[in-house]
What we know:
The protein has 509 residues and is α/β, with parallel strands linked by helices. It is 22% helix and 32% strand. The chain has two domains: 30-263, Phosphatidylinositol (PI) phosphodiesterase (TIM Barrel); 290-508, Jelly Rolls (Sandwich), CATH 2.60.120.200.
Amino acid sequence: MRFFYLYLALVYCTFSFATGGTHQTGNQFAPGPVVAHRGAFKMNKFPENSIASLREAIRLQCAGSEFDVRMTADDSLVINHDADYHQLPIEKHTYAELAAIPLANGEKIPTLRQYILAGLSGNTTTRLVCEIKPSPESKQRGQLIGERAVKLIQELKAGEKLVYISFDYDILKKVIAVHPGAITQYLNGDLPPEQLKADGVTGADYHYSVFKNKPEWILQAKQNHIVLNAWTVNDAETMDWLLANGFEFITTNEPELLAERVKKSPAANGWKLNWSDEFNYKGLPDSSKWAFDVGGHGGGNNELQYYTGRDTLNAKVENGVLKIIARKETKENKSYTSAKLVTDQTALFTYGRIEVRAKLPAGRGTWPAIWMLGKNIKEAGWPACGEIDIMEHVGYSKDSVFGTIHTESYNHMKGTQKGKSIFITEPYERFHVYAIEWTPEKMDFMMDGVVYNQIINEHKTSKEWPFDEPFYLILNLAIGGNLGGKYGVDDGIFPATMEIDWVRVYKSK
């Protein structure tokens, strides 16, 4: 828990930096990344962009609450996402005409003045995130909307609570011209962080797919002190990815879900992402991260496969997933082919949290594994180098996976290995997260966040605990062998595929 509050403090400090470190007297802006998209509307079925949804976001102590600004035919600034309100084009109708049609909860369409005043009342926690919509009439009118919005917000002395966002870059430039030092974030996703910094824009608030397709922009943003936000993120998996990558803010229609994911995030427990592969590309695995163990040596366990090199028949990335494929085919006197990936020698790990999200192959005779070996295996040999089996599974026992260590004192050759299994449901139908948390004192084995095996450092010798040295990570799908082939191999299962959604390695903060 102490690590969680340290994490929240860090995010709070980052938020202070992102907003210039200025706060109104009494403001203690909520820590964490949660920005409610158009207010917190979904859980209680409030209208989007209503004062009710704003107040709910404040009640939830979201870090921010986003809303959309447009201008009517009589130059009233109003809050509405679409260019039309109940099929009435906002820019061609007066405020009185629009206000005659209430929102679903009986509210009138809010004016910007009403909305800001509501956001100031009793709110010391939630930043107001003001999206200025481009005008369908002209770019000039869009900039005029931005200018008038800023001046009204300054008149109401609310500037320190505001973040300005827009898809129109010229609108943001107008905001900065009217209010130098204003906190601004660009939404369109077509400009690199260096460009934002050069133009005085303080944040990149892009659709999360932009960052997945251009992961280098995440690092560039951090190097240039550009705040990272992503929209509109409503699923736990994407939330977890953004949290792992240190995004300061996440805009969501599901603020309650995001708050829960923050609590469960490794970052909330003192871990910082150190190395990863999200497999957001196509073709062979990234050669800067993965090498191949090639050959038909049987892995020392009389396995039946030949591990091929860079061959997309046995290892390929598509649709955001790494697929390791075992096939029924003869190669080098072996009856099957498969792949064994090892992290590059520049990716060696001593301690940390290692997570792999994977879907396992079905069928008798399969033996998929996610594991680690000590870098010094050539010098020390096995098992003195140490082995960490993060996850092993055998196809003839479809309802369990197991985590094990092997050392000189504790190994399966002596029958002294330290391992335990955990019951698993749907190992072949859905992805599960297999992980270890490894410190100088202990090693916890987890599936989907549940610890099922713990190894304590006895502080004897390296024969019992060789885990203070660098290790490398291995992903493979073996066929047959002493364990996997205990009940033979069903040749009707091929091709058999192990799918890996992502690999993430964290180190302690």
